[in-house]
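Lab notebook, bench 4. We co-purified these components, and the gel suggests they stay together. Before we commit to crystallization screens, I want a quick structural picture of the whole thing.
Request: model the full complex, all chains together.
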Amino acid sequence: MAAQSHSYLGIVRRQFMRQRLHRVSLYAIFAILLLAVGADFVASERPILLSLSGKLYVLPNVINPVALRAYDNRRLTQVMSESDWAVFPPVPWGVNSHDLDATLAPPSATHWLGTDSGGRDVLARVVHGSRVSLAVGVLSVIVLVSIGILLGSVSAYYGGVLDLLLMRLLEVVHSVPALLLLVTMLSVIMPTGWRAVVAMMVVIGLVNWTGVARLVRGEILRIKQMPYIEASRALGYGAPRIILRHVLPNALSPVLVTATFAMASAIQIEGALSFLGFGIPADMASWGGMLNDVRGHTGAWWLAVFPGAAIFVTVTVYNLAGEGLRDAIDPRLKS
Amino acid sequence: MLKYVVRRVLWMIPTLFGITLVCFLLLRMANADPVSAKLQNPMRAQQISQEAIAQLRALYDLDKPWYVQYGRLVQRLCTLDLGTRWQDGRPIVDVIAEALPITLLLSLLSITLAYLISIPLGVYSAVKQYSLGDRVLTVVLFVLYSLPAFWVGTMFIVFLASGNFLKCPWTADHACFPLQGWHAFDGFAAMSRWQKLGDVAWHMVLPVVTLTYQAFAVLSRYMRAGMLETLRQDFIRTARAKGLSERRVIFGHALRNSLIPIITLIGLELPELVSGAVIVESIFGIRGMGLVALEAIRMPDYPLVITIVAFTAVLVMLGMLLSDLLYAVVDPRIKAGEESR
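Here is the predicted assembly.
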C-alpha cells in the first residue's frame, strides 16, 4: 500500500474517495469537462483530418479553414474522389448544420437523438451545450464565491455598523426573487454571442452570493472564538498571520462545499434563463434553449428528454460531489 | 410578543429602502437618459411607441436630478400610483390585482403541500433510520432535488398533457391534463361553483406538482436531520425512561422540537417559490404575476417590471416575518427571550 498522506487535504481526499458514488460523481464531472473541451472532436460539421485533391487539412473541425467553408461532412463525401480520405467525427453534424430534409425528425441512424425544428442535430447540440453550461457554472461560481468571501469576512472582522449594513444588503438581495431580477438585468443588457455567456456569469454571480457571505461570516465569527486562535494570539502572532494562516483556511473548507452546490444551482439557473428565452442566443447551443424549442412542438419528445437529461445528470453529479465533499470535510455533518 | 412584532416590522423599513433602491438602479440602467438610445434601437423601436417613451419620461421625471427621481419612485410605489400597462393601457394596479391571487393560490397550495408531505416523511425516515424505506426515500429525495423544474414541467406537457402519449379518450383532444391556463377557456363562466372548483383543481395538478417537488425534497431532508438530532437529546431519553409510549415520545416531545428548523426554512423557500412560479406560469400559460412580469420584460415595460419586482420582494419579506412569528409560536423559549430583554 502506498504511503498515505496525513495532511488535511490527504485525509479529505481519502474520505471522499471512500464512497463509490462520490468517486463516480467525480469521474463524471471530469468526463463532462472533457466533453466540453473536446466537443469539436465529438460533433462537428467538418472532419478531424481531411485529404482533399492532394491537399492535407489538419483539424478543419477546429480551425475552420476558409477553403472549406462551403463544405460540410455530407457535401465532402459527395465531392471526394477515390484518392481522398477523411477522418470524420463520430457525430457528423455541427451546432448549426441544418439538415432541412429532416426537420423535427425522431431519433434515427442519421440523427441519433433526432433533430429540432430547424433540422439541427440534437446530439451535436447537447454535446456542444456542455460548454455553455460549464462556462456559466464555473465562472459565476468564481464571481459569487469572491463576493461572498469578501463581504462575509469584512462583515465578520469589522462587526458593528458595517456588519449591520452588509447584513441588510444581504437581506435585500435575498428577498428580491432571483429569477425576476436576473431576467430583468439580462433584458436590460441584451447581450449577444459569447457576450451573453459572460453577462450571464456575472449576473448570476451578482445575485447569488448571499449564501457564501452568510456562511463565511458565521464561520469566521465561530473560529474567532476558538481556543487555538487565542493561543496563537498569546504566542504573539500578528493579525495578518492569524487571519491568513489560522482563520481563513478553516473557514474556507465549508465554502468549497457551498461552491460545489452553487455550481449545480448555477447550471440550473442558466438552464432556466435560456429556457425562458433570456439567456443564451438561439444560434448557440445551450440545454435550456433547446428545451425552449419543445413549446411549439409538444409531439417531439426527443427535444424534451435529451437536453433536460443532460442538465439533470450534470446537476446531479455536482450535487453528489458536494455531498461527498461535505461528508469528507466534516464527518459530524453527515446525516 | 407585540413588541417583538413591532420591532421586526420596523426592521423591515431599511430593507424596503434597499429594495426600492435596487429597483431604481435597474430602472436607471434600463432608461436613464441615455435611455432612448436603448429604447430606440431598431429592434425595439417598433415595439415601443414614442408616446410610451414620453410617458415613461414623465412618469419617472427623467429630466430631474436622481434624488428627485428616486423620491418620486418611492412615493409612487407607496401610493400605488403606478401608471398604466403599455400593452393595453390598463392600470397596473388592476393588472396586479388580477394576477396576484392566481400566483398566491399556486404558491400557497404548493408550500402547504410541501410541508404536509415532508413532515410525516421526515419523521418516518428519522424514526426508521437506515431501514429500506429510509434509504429508498433518501435516494428519491436526492433525485427530486436535482431535477430542474423547467424540465419536469416540459416533460409533463409532452408526456401527460399533449395527448400524444398518455391518452384519455373521453376528452376532446385525448389530453389527460390541460395544456394551458388555470381554468377552461370556454364555458368557465357558465359552470356551477363546484364545477368551477373541479376545473381549477384539474388545471392546477401539474403546475402545483412542478412547483412543489423541489421544496418538498429540501424540507424532507431537513425534517429528517432535525428529527434525528432531537431524538439524540437527553430529554427524549428521559421521556422514554419515565415510561411514555414511543408514540408520545415522538409526537408529543420530539416532533415539536424538530419543527423549529424547518419553519425557519420558509424564509429560504419563499424566494425560490417565486422564481419557481415564474417558470411554472410560463410553461403552463397561467396568467399570474410571473407570466405578467415576463411579458412586461419582453415589451419591455419597465414600470410594470419594477412594480412586480418590488411587490414580490415585499411579499417575500412579509412571508419571512410570518415565519419568524411562527418560530416564536413553536418555540416558547424564543418568545420568553425576546420579552425579557
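Chain A has two domains: 45-88, 123-333. Worth comparing against the SEC data before the next meeting. Residues 239-276 of chain A form the longest helix (38 residues).
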